Amino acid sequence: MSSGAEVLYVLIAIAGLCVATWFVTPKGDNQTVWRSSIILTLVMCYLMWALTYLSQLHPLIQPTRSDLRPEFAEGYSEYYGME
Amino acid sequence: MGKEAFFRSAEMSLVQLYIATEVGREVVAALGELGSLQFRDLNADVNSFQRTFVKEIRRLDNVERQLRFFNAQIEKASIKVKAVPGYADVTAAPHSNEIDQLALRTDELEERVNQLMESHERLTKKQVELTELRHVLIEAGAFFDRAHNVPEELRASLDNDDAPLLNNDVEQGDMSAATSFSVMNIGFVAGVIPREKMQTFERILWRSLRGNLFLNTTEIADPIKDSKTNEAVEKNVFVVFAHGAGILSKIRKIAESLDADLYAVDEDANIRRDQVREVNSSIADVEEVVSTTETTLMTELEAIAEQIASWMVVVKKEKAVYAALNLFNYDQSRKSLIAEGWVPTDDIPVIKTTLADVTERAGLQVPSIVNELSTTKTPPTYYRVNKFTESFQNIIDAYGVSQYREVNPGLPAIITFPFMFAIMFGDLGHGAIMFLAGLAMVIYEKKLLQINRDEIFDMAFTGRYIILLMGAFSMYTGLIYNDIFSKSMTIFPVGWEWPYTWNEGDLITANSTGTYAFGIDPTWHGADNNLIFNNSYKMKLSIVMGFVHMLYSLFFSLVNARFYNSKIDIIGNFIPGFLFLVSIFGYLSFIIVFKWAYDWIGNEKVAPGLLNTLIDMFLSPGNVTDLLYDGQPTVQVALVLLAVFCVPWMLLLKPLYLRWDNNRKTRSGYENLSQQEVTRLSFDEEAESSTPVVMEEMHEEHEFEFGDVMIHQVIHTIEFCLNCVSHTASYLRLWALSLAHAQLSTVLWSMTLERAFKMEGGLGVIMSFILFAAWFALTIAVLVVMEGTSAMLHSLRLHWVEAMSKHFIGDGIAFTPFSFKAVLEEPAQ
């Protein structure tokens, strides 16, 4: 079971990337546009991923289905190397 | 910061230009090419008919009218107009000589074209008349030939209405041979009448003459061209017989009132034959002349068509120049023109060099001077956009023009707009289609710029970068939602494990083995309770995203307040607003994330419902049934109290402070100063008369009215607090639309392709071919175009209403520089 700390690690990585973006963006007429756009992209993509990840971290409901054929189990356990 | 101006609008300066009168035209033309100066009207009190260059503008208007007249004629003759070759060779400011020549030339041409057209019209009319006459001669002649055989019958029918026509046939047949109509005192009227009026004509004649007539008509096979309306009209030849001169003239009047053309026809067959011959030869003559005139006119128009587009450009530019010159002041003593206008401060050097260049080229000793003025007037808002940022700025400008130098919401919108769209449109496949469409438009940008784009395509083309980013982010959110054309992908190890054995039809439950690394676990796809999971996930996601978006926008109000140096806006508006938003919706977002992150099953606790938690927080803050965390009641009470306290804080602090500040100023006697009219006078020092050249009232401050301020603040407070609630709810559209999109694409799949895959044999092959076409066409039309448009409108609304209301002041005036490019792009009236 993951503890959710991954969200924080990635957060630190993203923050690092944002800082790097601030300094790396080429100087010139469009620097602000570059900075704002890249950092916003990073942050929004991170938020989207992190919220999705968190929502599945400690699930309260489990997927159920009744349309799976028993044969599915064989291929499925082979594929994941389970017994 | 150089020339960058997108986060805030460019700094503007009010400049005054002194231009020697001789080069006024050239300087303005050069500035028009440059397009970065917005002239102010220095003659606002002079009406447009009394301005200096009215005469020139009138003349150019006339030339423009002539050109439009040529254009209309060219269009009528369906000659192709040669397009202006770029704007390259016509951009040079035309010499005033050239304009004079052009005006003369167009005058001449107009006269000539008019003459040609007039004679053409006259000739066609003649031609029509002759054609009609020929028809009358032939048809009426044929009738006479027939009628001469039966004049008695005719007379009988005229004398006695009751006489049966056919009965007398045999008796009277032989004695009628050579009897002339004149002998019987019967006259006739012959002519041509439009076919649709024939029946009316007949009826009127019958009624007004009480049946004392004999009417004969024949249809003319070919329609005849009407010289007035240039339309082909179907016509009939008619011959009316009646006796008595009075009756005949009555018939003539009736016929003429019904647009009939009357022609004289002789009774004698020999004369008629001569007439026909004569008419035939004149028709041939007229036809030849008409065709020569037509060719001449065509050649003339073709020659004009070669050049008309560039003439139009020259005239439009020239007119714009004089219109600008009309805004200038004229300094009598110094023989120079004075102009005032707004210019981006960075562009002043360019303006200066342009002015110097023009003056030098003209070889003038008097230099043109650029003066910067200090002013309290509000400068116009001007963003330096490029082809990428332009479309995003258009989104914002469609809502309102930002205040001078306030934070431009267009900058974050570059990302947040397509991203909010993508949250609603998340599907890797649909996103890819949109991305490719955007990419194609970006790659073939130059080619597409040149072709004629219809209205809808032009809209898409203008927003090509928006479409590109919307597509790209939709692909990302599609990956997160694990949706590609409603199917899922298993890229990472799944976090759920099905039981190892079960019987067909059993309801089986998967066990958690971990967390899927990126996006939604594919196991959820097709699960019976997929919708329950997705509902909860997407609803919470949109609340948190909405809160973050609003908070981010709210911070721009802090940036604005700091920039305008208004501490009271920070303390009286931003801080209470921030606390209010955070203490309710920030807390909501926090408990959402907390509930996700906490291992309820592992810790053997009951997970409390968030909706009830939030409702109870307001109904009974200190009383929590299912605890999320220890100390929750205390925290919630504190937050509710904080939020409640923020309301009077926001309501009262700013107006009371402003009143106190105003009173303090009044007491210390500053009021008189600010009430004084501050007038700027710029004197002409050299001239002895020392007439004020520019005199303007700079008094723009308003008196302090506590009532106004208070009402404004009450509205702001109520609006802010209520909006925090309604706007958060409004972000739920992200949830609704993304669910709808996913469901719709699932339905489309199962209605089309999935059915084909269930068929067997040859039918399956054919049906998968056909149903794929249906599925793909509907995917593009419904899921990408229609759903995409709707998601885009929702994203637009989220920006205009939910985000921009948190900081946007938007009472700016747009910068509209004097630029030929803009003048030429204006649609022709």
**Secondary structure tally: strands of chain B:** 16
Which fold name corresponds to the CATH topology of the domain at 147-267 in chain B? Alpha-Beta Plaits
Uncertain runs of chain B: 163-178, 674-699
Helical run tally of chain B = 25
Helix content of chain A: 55-70%
* Percent helix of chain B: 55-70%
Q: Largest interface, counted with CB-CB under 8 A?
A: A-B, 45 and 71 residues
Strand content of chain A: under 5%
In angstroms, what is the radius of gyration of chain A? 21 Å
Number of domains of chain A: 1
Organism (chain A): Myxozyma melibiosi
Membrane topology (chain A): Multi-pass membrane protein
Transmembrane segments (chain A): 7-25, 37-55
Keywords (chain A): Hydrogen ion transport, Ion transport, Membrane, Transmembrane, Transmembrane helix, Transport
Q: Key features?
A:
heterodimer, A: 83 residues, 3 helices, 2% strand, B: 829 residues, alpha+beta, Alpha-Beta Plaits, hydrogen ion transport (chain A), membrane (chain A), ATPase_V0-cplx_e1/e2_su (chain A)
Provide structural commentary:
The complex is a heterodimer of chains A (83) and B (829). With 83 residues, chain A is mainly alpha-helical. Chain A has one domain (5-79). Chain A contains three helices and one strand. Chain A has helices spanning 5-24, 31-55, 71-79; one strand at residues 64-65. In chain A, α1 (5-24) runs antiparallel to α2. The longest helix of chain A has 25 residues, at 31-55. The mean pLDDT of chain A is 87. Chain B is an alpha+beta fold and 829 residues long. Among the domains of chain B are: 1-42 and 327-373, 2-Layer Sandwich (Alpha-Beta Plaits); 147-267, Alpha-Beta Plaits, CATH 3.30.70.2750. In chain B, 59% of the residues lie in helices and 9% in strands. In chain B, the strands form five sheets. In chain B, strands 1, 2, 9, 10 and 11 form a five-stranded antiparallel β-sheet that branches. Chain B has a four-stranded antiparallel β-sheet with strand order 4-7-3-8, sandwiched between helices. A two-stranded antiparallel ribbon of chain B has the order 5-6. In chain B, a hairpin with an 8-residue loop joins β15 and β16 (692-697). In chain B, α11 (410-425) packs across α22 (732-751), α17 runs parallel beside α21 (706-730) and α22 (732-751) packs antiparallel against α24. Chain B is extended and about 125 Å long. In chain B, 33% of the residues are buried. Residues 163-178 and 674-699 of chain B have low confidence and may be disordered. β1 of chain A pairs antiparallel with β13 (508-509) of chain B.
